[in-house]
């Protein structure tokens, strides 16, 4: 029986050493080095699916998600634009929004009460008089950080934490065809929430657009299962 060799370190990492046509090395699920590499090269620089636009269909609608380690709020602002805001107050980095979903014109930090609009702009702070003439500058420079790039395809909203890189369409490549087939198969194509799936269509539906078979997916791959 053939086996995979121990995975290399991050410095000389080659994905072919841990992923083969018919097997994946168990270290993919347990290696801290591989995990850090995924965070740095996928979640910090690539496009990540965060929501379907129907989940934030009205101004003020929001969802809380993670992009890698970073907590974010996916929100449709009062101007109708979908933004992905870092879910951290710019005052003391406290988590701003704890609800999973909702509708809000603004977000108020529970720590010191700083308030931000649903477009990310700083709206107000307690004891404003204490800031004197610096308040206008403070307000202009301390709005919520946000993903520099947000785009969508077929209603699926993606965000990238990197200001530069390939476009979403380039990133998706031939996967756009699979998304199109998925949308054509579903009577309710908007019902595709981001996050963990308990049930999903069999892969064949995406590959050739046929079949009604559905299957249960495990919630996780147990780390003790190795090739």
From TrEMBL:
Q: Please tell me whether the keyword Iron is annotated for this protein.
A: yes
Occurrences of domain Rieske (ranges):
47-145
**Swiss-Prot/TrEMBL keywords:** 2Fe-2S, Iron, Iron-sulfur, Metal-binding, Oxidoreductase
Q: Which Pfam families match?
A: Rieske (PF00355)
Gene Ontology molecular function, alphabetical: 2 iron, 2 sulfur cluster binding; iron ion binding; monooxygenase activity; oxidoreductase activity, acting on paired donors, with incorporation or reduction of molecular oxygen
Q: Which stretches are tagged as biased composition: Basic residues?
A: 216-227
Which residue ranges are recorded for the region named Disordered? 186-227
Q: Where is the composition biased (Basic and acidic residues)?
A: 205-215
Keyword hit for Lyase: no
Q: Which InterPro entries match?
A: ARHD_Rieske_2Fe_2S (IPR015881), Rieske_2Fe-2S (IPR017941), Rieske_2Fe-2S_sf (IPR036922), Rng_hydr_dOase-A (IPR001663)
Protein family (similarity comment): Belongs to the bacterial ring-hydroxylating dioxygenase alpha subunit family.
Q: Which PANTHER family match?
A: 3-PHENYLPROPIONATE_CINNAMIC ACID DIOXYGENASE SUBUNIT ALPHA (PTHR43756:SF1), CHOLINE MONOOXYGENASE, CHLOROPLASTIC (PTHR43756)
> What's the protein called, per UniProt?
Rieske domain-containing protein
What is the source species?
Mycolicibacterium alvei
């Amino acid at each position: 029986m053939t086996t995979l060799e121990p995975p290399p370190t991050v410095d000389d990492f080659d994905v072919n050493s841990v992923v083969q046509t018919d097997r994946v090395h168990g270290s993919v699920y347990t290696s801290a080095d591989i995990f850090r590499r995924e965070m740095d090269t996928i979640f910090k620089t690539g496009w990540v699916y965060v929501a379907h636009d129907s989940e934030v269909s009205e101004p003020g609608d929001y969802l809380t998600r993670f992009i890698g380690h970073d907590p974010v709020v996916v929100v449709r602002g009062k101007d109708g634009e979908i933004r992905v805001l870092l879910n951290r107050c710019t005052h003391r980095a406290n988590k701003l929004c704890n609800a999973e979903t909702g509708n809000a014109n603004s977000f108020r930090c529970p720590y010191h009460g700083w308030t931000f609009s649903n477009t990310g702009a700083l709206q107000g702070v307690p004891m404003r008089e204490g800031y004197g003439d610096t308040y206008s500058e403070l307000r202009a420079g301390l709005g919520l950080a946000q993903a520099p790039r947000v785009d969508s395809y077929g209603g699926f909203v993606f965000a990238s934490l990197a200001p530069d890189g390939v476009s979403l369409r380039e990133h998706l490549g031939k996967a756009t065809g699979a998304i199109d087939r998925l949308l054509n198969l579903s009577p309710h194509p908007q019902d595709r929430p981001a996050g963990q799936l308990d049930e999903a269509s069999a892969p064949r539906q995406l590959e050739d657009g046929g079949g009604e078979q559905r299957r249960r997916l495990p919630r996780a791959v147990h780390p003790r299962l190795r090739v």
